[in-house]
Amino acid sequence: MVRQKKKERLNQESISEAWPSFKQPRLRVLIAKPGLDGHDRGAKIICRALRDAGMEVIYTGLRRTPEEIVNAAIQEDVDLIGLSILSGAHNVLFPKIMKLLRKKGAGDIPVIAGGIIPEKDIPRLKKIGLAEIFLPGTSTQEIIDWIQKNIKIRAKKRDT
After folding, report:
1. 3-state secondary structure the chain
2. How much is the pTM?
3. Quick check: is 17 in a domain?
4. Mean pLDDT, to the nearest integer, of 96-112?
């Protein structure tokens, strides 16, 4: 009996350390794979890392259009959009996503990106509004630290 109670207490302590309180607001992050890119291992690793860091993560899956990504971000009332791309179509897809966000009144949702993006394209992408771009070799902890430092929970339209 004593051993069982001690085990239950240890389980409760580890659960409370791993997950924030249900009443504590958590960042809601949408991770999306725009375009025809068919490789999502990196996106799934990011999803898991952000979830383990206490964020609520929504993953759209592969081959999403800019419209699908923006609509999902609005419907899910997210605090951040993370785009993962390896196909080289970032100069076409990212501007479309940023334009749609502004057009639909969601221009206040910050957008970050990662994947195979040439360094020469980064200034242009930041100029159109991407908050940060993470290149191959960036650790998941660096991404988590950047998000925790720079992204705040937005004023929500949904009840929390």
Report:
1. CHHHHHHHHHHHHHHHHHCCCCCCCCCEEEEECECCCCCCHHHHHHHHHHHHCCCEEEECCCCECHHHHHHHHHHHCCCEEEEEECCCCHHHHHHHHHHHHHHCCCCCCCEEEEECCCHHHHHHHHHCCCCEEECCCCCHHHHHHHHHHHCCCCCCCCCC
2. 0.84
3. no
4. 98
